[in-house]
Amino acid sequence: xxDLRVVGTVADLPTTTFGHRSSMWWGTIGFIVxxxxxxxxxxxxxxxxxxxxxSWPPERVLRPALTAxxxxxxxxxxxxxxxVMVDKAARRLDLRVVRTGMVVVSLxxxxxxxxxxxxxxxxxVRWDSNAYGSAAWAVVTTHTSLLxxxxxxxxxxxxxxxxxxxxxxxxxxxxxxxxxxxxMTLAWIPLAALVFLLPYxx
Length: 202
Known about the structure:
The chain is mostly helical. It has one domain: Cytochrome c oxidase, subunit III, four-helix bundle (Four Helix Bundle (Hemerythrin (Met), subunit A), Up-down Bundle), CATH 1.20.120.80. The protein is about 70% helix and about 0% strand. It contains five helices and no strands. The longest helix has about 30 residues, at about 130-160. The radius of gyration is 22 Å and the shape is elongated.
């Protein structure tokens, strides 16, 4: 029988990885590219349709109200503060801070969903009223799908953080969740300006 010779070992490889060394990180980046492209297409369609009208919104259609959109923008920007805290704590493997930060972010996500419902009302137009309504609703609805999915993921992951079976490597998921959170919240800023503010400027 031929003697076996060890040519390598994986015993010393880390069990917890962050950033590009994690397969979950690459999956998150893939989602961001796909969903970012969808948001971009919706925004371009909105601008394209606007160029075909003399007034935007069309005559006898109210401009969108700005209160809910302003509150939402402020919430999304401020929510990145605890999420950055979660991201950094996860890389330090500080479970206590990660748990606290994720609870805060989960509550903010739920509040954002409520404010999003108010934003739909603030559009002051039905989705099937005209091209303006369809374009505005398409932008907000597409981003809402991201918000709802991220809210569910964040709440579920927060609950799992309190599981007695939690492993150290699970903390890398908090960092990956933070990357998507940054994308979801920051992407809304130009979209909100497009849908809610642009009608006041043209």
